[in-house]
Amino acid sequence: MPTLSQLAQILIACKVTTAEAWQRVAKLGGGDLAQTLDALADAPPWWAADAADPPPGLTEYQRSVIELWWEDEELPLHRQLALNQFLILQKLGQGGQGAVYHARQLNPARFVAIKTLTQDTESRRRRFEQEAKAMMRVQHPGVARFYLYERVRDEANQPTDEYLIAMEYVEGTDLYRLVQDHGPLPWRFVARWAVDVLGGLAVIHKNGFIHRDVKPANIMIVGPAPGPRVSPADSPAKLLDFGAVKQADDEPGSGVKRVFVGTREYAPPEQWGGRVVPASDLYAFGATLFHALAARPPYQVEGRDAALFMRAHARAPIPDVRDWTPDVPEPMSRLIMRMLAKDPDDRSTAAELVDEFRELLPPDVRAAGQPKPANVPRPAKPKPKPAAVAFQAPQEPEEKGAAHVVLHPFLTVLELLFLPARLRPPAGQEPGVPERVTMLLRRPLFLLAVVALIGLFIYLIR
User: Is 220 helix (H, G, I), strand (E, B) or coil?
Assistant: First the structure.
């Protein structure tokens, strides 16, 4: 069993807290782990002590990994709390290529999204570094900014086979979630987002890169959700997640097996064979715009069968979004159908499409600049699943289905009874059922109540 003294050494080494701050919370904790962690969470973190509205001194993620380590000290606590100069605040996802975190960079001081990647051969390292250096040149308001990359070092400061990529942390709601919450979205907003993202894709393609996984979950809407009092000019969009990006001229040699990379609902015909070109991103984005306007992808397949999806993208007639949303202007529908052309040569270019989508917008929206999203002041509070992130795991966000509707009132009552006010999700911004249940299960009083109810039930049925 570890000791509080061992915990203090790790937290101070990871810069979660300072020696002086630990002395204060240790006195308040009185030798008890839970009370010590409560005191640490209640105090502002040392790196934001002077902020007008500081975040908690210990996030729920940090607390959970500490409690797991307390039960099994063989777990790598240091690795889960800090990576090089980054203090990990929250784990946002786990993809096929690595984990995604929300973190605080200490120098310069800013919130970032970081993704870890394993590069275990010299050739993979050289290729990764080449692409990372080039991606740092890509700067556009419609693209999450690529800050830096570096090799992850272990506790002894020795380089490992892991790299991390740090990118702009964007606050907003991803397009997939927005459609789930609001249904088909107004075409003027969708046209504005098309201008933003196509502008970013034009810069990416100009620099010799292909995104390869454009989809609604990777489009973050930074401003307010569409509404009668909201102008499209106040609701910009950003393209996220560059975990699958590749150089346009990097074709595998003969004998190398081509592997499908992308998302089935949005991937163009050529991508299913492992070949991608800049126009492949345009097809995926056209399918994304179709989803935003019709609240469904252009092709739907039972069970998401890969072979059926491949056949649909390659052979099925190109759908007209107006069959689902009649108020979409015909010129906009034609643009989307062009982007969904089977032949990449028929899709035009991102730079050309930007101008055509811009012509659809009212003059005030057409001239609107793109506001810069602010850093999140309280990043560690429980948030809904669409919390903005510059990288995301491959799976689509969970829908709020019947389980959420049925269990929502019950979970709300349990949260009022067993969670302190600072941990309760804001009304209307509750995360999914699994996240809410997990948070309740971390509270000892809740677990005690569950055990008592189970005991009572067993007693009554005897």
Answer: strand
